[in-house]
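Page 47, continued from p. 46.
Same chain as before, 109 aa.
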Amino acid sequence: MSVCLTCNLTFEDDRAFCSNCGSQSAVPDNESETGFRYLVLPERHDPLEDDPEIKKIIDAAGEEATVTVSQEHQPRLGFCQIVWRVQKKILKEKYEIDWKSPQEMNPHI
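Result:
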């Protein structure tokens, strides 16, 4: 059983997000102070990253993107989204790789 803490709907299964409002759901937990605990979904990644050769290219593009972005922006909240956007562009333009960033693969985060 899970409960949406926003709209208070109860579901018979342990779903991580409310199908009504999209908010994060929780399951009852008598051990916690609130009486609930959030369900945490595993972070997903682009399946291209499972290929060791492509992973090396993706990582190198990430390093290049970090250097490029660091020249114009100070690290702060949201910095990684800027790096991923530049990394995606590098991968597409230099290597013709259509990579999906962690942000695209995990819209729930």
